[in-house]
Design a protein that fits this description.
This protein has one domain: ADP-ribosylation/Crystallin J1 (ADP-ribosylglycohydrolase fold, Orthogonal Bundle). With 277 residues, it is mostly helical. The two termini are 18 Å apart.
């Protein structure tokens, strides 16, 4: 999930000040973690809390209704807890309201918030069926509109396929068949693409940035260069690129310095959890 966090940090300075070129400093004085990183870490925490409560190690869980029901509750708890602790990190108005509700329910959102936070699903799931079930569970607690669910599911599946070594051409073919037409290039849209927080107008653009790039770093640069909701778009693109290319050590080390003690503890816990077979 660190790919999503790096994409968020790198894209954050350009969210409301788009830069439609690739010759920029990856980490600047305006770089920071925003809601994309915080909610991604919350998703990871929800999984770890669920597995721990049921007494599962990372590799032995049975993805049944008991687990999914508990996961839903743990996801709400994690999103609300971290959201309340970081209220000024860039949440949208409706999600910010959801965070502070006593008994929150899904609000038919088709925003890109589900896709930005879903990457831990793809690293935990063992099958495509598990990707879909886990993605729908953690996304649907808030973003239960069909487009919101689709955006997160498509992102998680692309990461999963890349993680399994599936070629880019095959990933694109699968996404085109089941989710989005991907009938444009970045050059086609770069001059006109505008800020958009919907899943259906962020996830395809992020996927195209990944598909056109030849490395993790190039994915970051192309993601920012598209414009729009730069931190979220680049977080989604880089979450897929991580599974395809890995993350250069220098970028990994630099990004982790942006996490405060509490966020770093969740990240470190996830690293340990993922090694637990």
């Amino acid at each position: 999930m660190l790919g999503a966090i790096i994409g968020d940090i790198v894209g954050a300075p350009y969210e409301f000040n788009n830069y439609r070129r690739t010759d920029f400093e990856l980490f600047s004085r305006r770089s920071r973690v925003t809601d994309d990183s915080i909610m991604t870490l919350a998703t990871a925490r929800a999984f770890m809390d669920t597995w721990e409560t049921l007494g599962y190690s990372r590799g032995e869980a049975v993805i049944d209704e008991t687990l999914l029901t508990l996961l839903e509750k743990k996801a709400v708890a994690a999103y609300q807890d971290l959201g309340r602790r970081y209220p000024d990190c860039g949440f949208g108005q409706r999600f910010n309201h959801w965070i502070f509700q006593e008994d929150p329910g899904p609000y038919d959102s088709y925003g890109n918030g589900g896709a930005m936070r879903v990457s831990p699903v793809a690293w935990l799931a063992n099958t495509e069926e598990e990707v879909i079930r886990l993605s729908r569970t953690v996304t649907g607690v808030s973003h239960n509109h069909p487009e919101g669910l689709k955006g997160a599911e498509a992102t998680a599946l692309a990461i999963f396929l890349a993680r399994k070594g599936v070629a880019k051409a095959a990933i694109k073919k699968r996404i085109r068949r089941d989710y989005y037409p991907l009938d444009f290039t970045l050059a086609d849209i770069r001059d006109t693409y505008a800020f958009n927080e919907t899943a259906q107008e962020t996830v395809p653009q992020a996927m195209e940035a990944f598909l056109e790039a030849g490395s993790f770093e190039e994915t970051l640069r192309l993601g920012v260069s598209v414009g729009g909701d730069s931190d979220t778009l680049t977080a989604i693109a880089a979450s897929i690129a991580e599974a395809c290319y890995g993350i250069p050590g220098s970028l990994r080390e630099k990004a982790l310095t942006y996490l405060d003690e509490d966020l770093r503890s969740i990240y470190d816990r996830w690293q340990t959890f993922m090694r637990d077979r």
